Amino acid sequence: MKVYFATHATSKDNEAGIASGWKDVELSELGIQQAKELEERFKDIKIDLICCSDLKRAVDTVKIAFGDKYP
């Protein structure tokens, strides 16, 4: 078994230099582009499961990158 880790894409707070912690912030335009690029980086890797935080920036990163392909 292999485990891959990726952080959420850039959020609006990241760009503003704010440490968000548990604050639920959205991805920035850069973050949306990064999430799209994440799919390309993982396109040839068999993935059985994706787990992420319930915070919007993490969930949106996964949704943009992988859509509904994984549970």
TrEMBL record:
InterPro entries the UniProt entry points to: His_Pase_superF_clade-1 (IPR013078), His_PPase_superfam (IPR029033), Phosphoglycerate_Mutase (IPR051695)
Domain of life: Bacteria
Chain positions recorded as substrate binding sites: 57
GO CC terms in record: cytosol
Native organism: Candidatus Jorgensenbacteria bacterium CG11_big_fil_rev_8_21_14_0_20_38_23
Protein name: Histidine phosphatase family protein
GO MF annotations in UniProt: fructose-2,6-bisphosphate 2-phosphatase activity
Record-annotated membrane-spanning stretches: none
SUPFAM superfamilies associated with the record: Phosphoglycerate mutase-like
Keywords: Hydrolase
GO biological process per UniProt: negative regulation of glycolytic process; regulation of pentose-phosphate shunt
